[in-house]
Write a structure and sequence with these properties.
Transferase(Phosphotransferase), domain 1, 13 strands, single chain, 6% strand, mainly alpha, 65% helix, three-stranded antiparallel sheet
């Protein structure tokens, strides 16, 4: 499309926006004046006005959202011409529909891999602008990270030969949710059960920080099995750090638009809650809450949407007989009665004009809908005692009748009263003993705190550490009953844990838990919580067998004293330790954590701290498995859950999830953003003195990782040294210390200090050997791989080859050939073969690595493929094909420039300079070195291999 045509379309849309507000009787004269002699412009405006009178998608978008009536006359021909063509591995077999940004096609997979039918979305010709492509690609990115049974799944994506972005998603053969319900005449309860699938999909999107913004029946299809699929994230928004976003474009559907969308106000998850309310209102009453229909012109829609919504019961009473009958055989009056009460309040809570007054989250809406299904009170309205009693009787009819019988029996028996009196006296004696213990405990704590007063401490500043040490000293010197001493010991153990003193915490927990035998449910559950904290401390010190034993003891207490209690069952399921990983394996523990999260989501109000711990466990497992997609999605989902439940931004409870988010950002190639997050977390931790479930040791190593991704090796070395210093000071276990040494090794290899790298990795392996850590241990294998890299860097190729071959066999046996561990060993072996000029082994291994990356869903534009091109160039040089080497090296640089650090790009340019110089282009080679050497000299040691080669080349030129 020419610039002239595009400008004509923009002009037509601007005129349409004005013309639609002018009375029809005056519009013709106005258009004749506005359009003048431009017949094409007048025809385009007329087409828009005609479409506005009947279209279900009003033309209120920006200049990119033309709609069907605003296509140029050749566009249908172009679209039809695509039928029969192939895009990627897909053949287009038909057109499913048109959207604001492009067409949607039916496609079949035709690469012979397997049979599959799907839907392909291709950005529409005529919207080929930066803004349109960004929106299209944003939709593809959002779908890539949303994995939910009620959200249409992204299957594939890429750029066509014509340069048009496309993606393929599952083909949903279904009907819009309102038509599906009406066709089957579903009753109210059935409709709510089905609608909960919608809410669950929206909840998943919100947990991934995505607001859909276009929830309507046509985007909620129900298949033949009764499964809802949420479609079309074309105008979805990703929430910013402050959990809101402003509408920068006006792409929307007026019929379902929230007040903030119409007013260009900040968009939050409350926007989706409004749209869910509109959809639910239609499902239940049969009409739109604002009286808007498909035929309502735009101007009229805006007027209607300014009013208050029609109450659900009133809308139902005005329904037609057919509409009411479709809702379970109701008449209009009986439908209105059935919707009266809590269901009407739920819809009303969604449709409050003030976003802050709506439901706080989709989780709360789901809980209220389930409460209505179960005849329980809802949060949207406060009930009187009478109403609550009525609901209780409704859901417990049998129990209520039995209670009446028991009451009569008790009144008839005097023996029961005597028994009750005896029990009451015994309970009173127990209460008195507990009261005495409580008074003694309070006295001890009061004395300890009094010692911190300025006149006693002789200082206006007393640190938390001083206060804890003072409390422990007093506890050791006083004679107290075990019932008083041990609870205080356990409390102090928790406090020492919060300031990172694992040794003191373990000693206090050990003493505070010894031979304690709980008598009541409350005592047992409190003791179980202390055992969990003790188990975690033991795990931090790598006393894994003891850690597992303490965790299992906590489970036994919960099962014995609180059988059938969902919260205690969740706590028992959720707690995972290194002992569990060592005994059962990481994959089993990951699945257990996923099951725990699913269990928690089925609970109406699960304990927030436990749910956050589960998210942390899942994210930690994903981090260790280098599962970037799961790592990012679950950490963001967990942090969104923390936000929704009022967990402060600087709370230590969030720290493990924040660290997982940082790791995901690093894997995603966003080290600078990751650095900002991790530095803020360290600052918050040092301010509060609490690092949460992540130690200061790990935080400084994570900071080093963010610096590495930016090529800031000197600063990364400083952060890693700080991490190792903290590990040693805390007396951490052999695995943690060896891992810290391995991290130092990796940085020194990049920095060019090869002797130090080998010394550190050898020291780490020796620590593991001294602690008899088995060779199959997952941590050990990671450390052994780093040691092999150090051996290669120092020219000890035979030793490295033997170790890597052994590690490859272990990875194949323990993890399988599709695992990340197996791929990483292959990568280290490839590096060895390239260093030893073993072309015969390196060539098929590079091809295998490429294939494995693609099989795991890694796109060709991922940074890793840039390094593959650089490796291909190395193989070309070894074969003597300098022209191919230069071509592959240039491709590597092109890709690295978009994602890698400046240092990596500089190294690639210096290598290209060698290729260019080899064909005699000395001036170009010198120019490349002038770009590369300043960056490399600033970041690397002179002995670093790439820098040394570049310096030699510069001297020769």
């Amino acid at each position: 499309m020419s610039d002239h045509d595009l400008e004509r379309r923009r002009r037509a849309l601007a005129l349409f926006r004005e013309a639609v507000e002018i009375a029809p009787a005056e519009r013709t004269a106005w258009l004749e004046h506005a359009c003048g002699d431009d017949a094409d412009l007048r025809a385009a405006v007329d087409a828009l006005l005609a479409a506005d009178e009947s279209s279900t998608e009003p033309f209120a978008g920006d200049a990119l959202a033309w709609g069907r009536a605003f296509r140029d006359e050749h566009s249908d021909v172009a679209r039809d011409a695509l039928v029969g063509r192939s895009i990627g591995p897909w053949r287009i077999t038909g057109i499913l529909g048109h959207g604001g940004m492009g067409a949607v096609y039916r496609v079949d997979r035709d690469d012979g891999a397997y049979t599959q039918h799907a839907a392909l979305k291709l950005i529409r010709a005529g919207t080929d602008s930066q803004a349109a492509r960004e929106r299209f690609l944003r939709e593809r990115q959002i779908l890539a990270r949303l994995r939910h049974p009620n959200i249409a799944t992204l299957l594939d994506g890429g750029i066509s030969g014509d340069g048009d972005p496309w993606f393929v998603m599952e083909l949903v053969d279904g009907q819009p949710i309102d038509r599906w319900c009406d066709a089957r005449q579903l009753g109210l309860r059935q409709r709510i059960v089905l609608f909960l699938q919608v809410v669950d999909a929206v909840r998943h999107a919100h947990r991934n920080l995505v607001v859909h913004r276009d929830l309507k029946p046509s985007n909620l299809l129900v298949d033949a099995e009764g499964r809802v699929k949420l479609l079309d994230f074309g105008i979805a928004k990703e929430l910013a750090e402050k959990q809101h976003t402003v509408t920068l474009d006006r792409a929307l559907t007026f019929e379902y638009a929230s007040p903030e969308q119409l007013l260009d106000a900040p968009i939050t998850t409350a926007t989706d809650l409004w749209q869910l309310g509109v959809v639910l209102h239609r499902l239940l009453s049969g009409s739109h809450p604002f009286g808007v229909t498909r035929e309502t012109p735009v101007a009229r829609q805006l007027q209607q949407l300014e009013r208050e919504p029609e109450p659900l019961t009133r809308a139902a009473s005005q329904a037609s007989d057919e509409q009411a009958s479709q809702r379970g055989g109701h008449s209009p009056s009986s439908l209105a009665r059935a919707l009266r009460g809590n269901l009407a309040q739920i819809v009303q809570a969604c449709l409050r004009r003030d976003p802050e007054a709506r439901y706080a989250s989709a989780d709360v809406l789901a809980n209220d809908l389930r409460a209505w299904l179960d005849d329980r009170p809802i949060s949207a309205v406060r009930l009187s005692r009478t109403d609550r009693a009525r609901l209780w009787l409704r859901r417990n009819r049998g129990l209520a009748a039995a209670a009446g019988i028991v009451t009569v029996a008790l009144l008839a028996g005097t023996g029961v009263a005597v028994w009750q009196a005896r029990e009451a006296r015994e309970q009173a004696r127990i209460a008195e003993r507990e009261s005495e213990n409580a008074r003694a405990t309070l006295t001890f704590l009061a004395d300890t705190l009094a010692a911190a007063a300025p006149e006693q401490a002789m200082s206006t500043e007393v640190s938390v550490r001083q206060l804890l040490d003072q409390a422990r000293d007093k506890l050791d010197r006083r004679t107290l009953e075990p019932q008083v001493r041990q609870p205080v010991q356990r409390m102090l153990g928790r406090l020492y844990r919060s300031i990172g003193d694992d040794q003191q915490a373990v000693e206090l927990f050990s003493a505070g838990l010894k031979d304690v035998a709980p008598q009541t449910r409350e005592e047992a559950l409190a003791l179980a919580d202390d055992l969990v904290a003790y188990s975690d401390e033991l795990g931090d010190l790598e006393r894994n067998a003891e850690s597992l034993a303490a965790a299992e003891q906590a489970v036994i207490l919960r099962q014995r004293f609180a059988p059938g209690d969902p919260e205690q069952e969740l706590r028992a399921m959720a707690h995972l330790t290194l002992g569990h990983v060592e005994k059962y394996g990481l994959e089993v523990c990951r699945k257990r954590a996923e099951s725990s999260l699913a269990f928690a989501k089925r609970m109406p109000s699960p304990p927030v701290d436990v749910v956050l711990d589960i998210y942390s466990d899942i994210s930690t497992a994903a981090n260790f498995q280098n599962d970037r997609q799961r790592l990012l999605s679950v950490s963001r989902e967990g942090l969104a859950y923390a936000d929704a439940h009022g967990i402060a931004a600087d709370s230590p409870v969030r720290r493990t999830l924040v660290r997982s988010l940082v790791s995901g950002l690093i894997l995603e190639g966003k080290p600078a953003e990751a650095e900002r997050v991790v530095r803020q977390a360290i600052a918050d931790s040092e301010k509060t003195g609490g690092y949460g479930g992540t130690s200061a040791t790990v935080w400084y190593q994570t900071l080093a990782d963010t610096l590495l991704g930016q090529g800031r090796y000197r600063e990364a070395r400083e952060a890693t040294d700080r991490s190792y210093e903290l590990s040693s000071r805390r007396g951490e276990g052999p695995r943690n210390l060896a891992m810290a040494l391995a991290n130092i090794t990796a940085i020194n290899l990049m920095y060019g200090d090869y002797p130090t790298a080998l010394a550190r990795s050898t020291q780490g392996v020796a620590r593991l050997d001294g602690a008899h850590v088995p060779h199959d241990d997952a941590f050990r294998r990671t450390i052994d791989r780093v040691h092999a890299r150090a051996l290669v860097a120092n020219g000890k190729f035979e030793d490295a080859a033997a170790r890597l071959e052994d590690l490859r066999a272990r990875a194949l046996r323990l993890d399988g050939d599709a695992s990340d561990e197996y791929a990483q060993v292959l990568g280290d072996q490839l590096n060895l073969y390239l260093r030893t000029s073993d072309v015969a082994r390196a060539t098929p291994m590079l091809a295998e690595l490429r294939t494995r990356m693609r099989q795991r869903g890694v796109a060709d534009d991922h940074e890793q493929f840039a390094y593959f091109y650089a490796m291909e160039a190395t193989l070309d040089r070894l074969r003597g094909d300098t022209a191919a080497a230069e071509q592959h090296q240039r491709e590597a640089i092109r890709r690295l420039e978009t994602s890698a650090s400046d240092v990596d790009v500089a190294v690639a340019r210096a290598t290209l300079a060698e290729d260019v110089a080899a064909r005699g282009a000395r001036a170009e080679a010198k120019k490349l070195l002038d770009q590369a050497l300043p960056v490399m000299r600033d970041a690397l040691l002179p002995a670093e291999r790439n820098l040394a080669n570049a310096e030699r080349l510069a001297t020769s030129l």
